[in-house]
Amino acid sequence: MAKERVVALLEQALQRARDAGDLPITHLPEISVEPPRVKEFGDFASNVAMLLTREMRRPPREIADLIVKHLPEDALVSKVEVAGNGFINFTLHPDWLHEVVRDIQTKGDAYGRWDVGKGERVNVEFVSANPNGPITVAHGRGGAIGDVLANLLEAVGYQVTREFYVNDATNSLQMQHFARSLVVRYRQLLGEDIGLPEDGYAGEYLVDIARELLEREGAHLAEGDETEVLNRFRNYAEEAMKRQQQADLADFGVVFDVWFSENSLHTSGQVDAAIRELKERGHAYEHDGAVWLRSTVFGDDKDRVLVRNNGQPTYIAADAAYHRNKFERGFDYLIDIWGPDHHGYIARTRAAVAALGYPAENFEVLIYQIVRLFKGGDLVRMSKRAGNVVTLRDVLDEVGKDAARFFFLMRSHESPLDFDLELAKKESSENPVYYVQYAHARICSMLRVAGEQGWTVPAARETDLSVLREEAELVLMKKLDELPEEVLVAATERAPHRLTRYSMEVADAFHKFYDTCRVVGEEAPLTRARLVLVDATRLVLKNVLTLLGVSAPERM
Q1: Predicted local distance difference test score (pLDDT) of residue 386
Q2: How do residues 152-188 score in pLDDT, each as one tens digit?
Q3: Among residues 192, 195, 205, which one has the least CA distance to residue 237?
Q4: Exposed, middle or buried: residue 362 (CB in 10 Å: 0-12, 13-18, 19+)?
Q5: Which of 107, 434, 527, 532 registers the highest number of CB atoms within 10 A of its CB?
Q6: What kind and span of H or E run contains 196?
Q7: How far apart are CA 165 and CA 126, in angstroms?
Q8: Which class for 378: exposed (0-12), middle (13-18), buried (19 or more C-beta within 10 A)?
């Protein structure tokens, strides 16, 4: 990438200036290079001179002049100027954009990929909904973020495992209430006049499970010892709910490598083993009949209970065992993606990881914020089938997988998201996902028409691309050059939303090119060059949409 080359040139210039004694800086600053807002200022600009003003106690323009003085020559660079308060502006030879297009055609589906991960293993755990209800809209946002982040990490060279943590511990009060609610729904189907318990689940999906259970097993399941009845109904309900969750997520394009049972940590003795190890390491102690994690040593605001005074382990005990299990499976990095109500669990979980002897910096948590659904300008509040939430299935039925995934990723996970269902269904340029997909489909149509006229996309390295001089062509090529950096930054900054923005920018640059530049014309050299350019744009759009888990249609 040209941007990387410019950064490397500035790094070399700073090193040379320091070695020569012109800039006796203690360390090289992090160099930022971005396209200037005004195109007359060149292709790239850097404010590195301003970053050195305080240390050097010299005007930034003077520092910039010294940096430019020590810049090594490079065939890529046509002109370097110092402007304004000390910006260093680079104008590149036009050929650099032609090399971008050639590189895209050569790499194809691999364009935009890196190998910075070197095959290190990353576990990305996300969604992890309790098995007591359907996948909600909130879980859907977490699913989109987790799945695309996993795609990005794979694209930059990591080996990724997608994992769903099933909260099925036998001591879960939520699951006990869930089982009791199912018993009531089952008995209601048998004609009994009884109501749901106070903490029961009102969603109609439980009626469906109860009906399925009645048809499959008959009318005798509610008979017998209450504990046995509850366990019987709970086991069936969990399995039925997991099947529904898996089906909904699969239709959303999210498929997990591992579904990990929390209960297995208890039954296998891993929770007890983790607590024992914490004691041996001196990070767990007994007080008032309970066992505590000395989490304040690792930055938590207070110590946390691992085992209550009634002998029951807490959630943090299972979480400690779970993350210990993941590290023992050989993962180098753990990334957990949690909903907005879990922020308070970060410090205690990180403390447990550190207390067990694992590097806390290799454990990371992303918290995504709430989703609000709108339809016709009105807030969509709940689904009758789910009881008190809107389900992912509701959204998929309304707008489809592609729009759902794209819209969930249009804002940073750190920001609340307003999802306009009506906009997501529009077949117009107002709809961002339609706008991007239409750009890809339009290119495919153009190439089909060109083929009918006897044209094929030529080999870029055998094509004269110097005829691509129109402003719309230059803007489009510059935008195509940005994909590798966008992928790397989105992966390292855990920012998959950058891909939706970038895809819209590429689509916008292409549509403007389409409006001003005729591809198949009378001039054969120009036709050949533009065919190479539009096909490179197709490849970039396809690669971005693939990372987003969104289809790249050839016809619309």
Answers
A1: 58
A2: 999 999 999 999 999 988 767 788 888 999 999 999 9
A3: 205
A4: middle
A5: 532
A6: none
A7: 8
A8: exposed
CB atoms within 10 A of CB 98: 22
pLDDT per position as a tens digit, 43-93: 999 999 999 999 999 999 999 999 999 999 998 999 999 999 999 999 998
Q: Return the half-sphere exposure (C-beta side, CA atoms, 13 A cut-off) of residue 189.
A: 21
Decide: residue 40, CB within 10 A, 0-12 exposed, 13-18 middle, 19+ buried.
Answer: exposed
Distance between first and last Cα of the chain? 33
| Residue 383 parent element (H or E) | none
Q: CA–CA distance from 216 to each of 245, 366, 465 (Å)? A: 20, 41, 68
Q: What is the tens place of the pLDDT at every residue in 378-429?
A: 999 866 555 668 899 999 999 999 999 999 999 999 999 999 999 999 999 9
Domains of the chain: 2-93 (3.30.1360.70), 126-265+369-425 (3.40.50.620), 429-548 (1.10.730.10)
Burial 466-494 (b: 16+ CB within 10 A, else e): ebbeeebbbbbbbbbbbbbbbbbebbeeb
For 375, the 3-state DSSP assignment is strand
Q: Which of 348, 341, 332, 164 is nearest to 256 (CA)?
A: 164
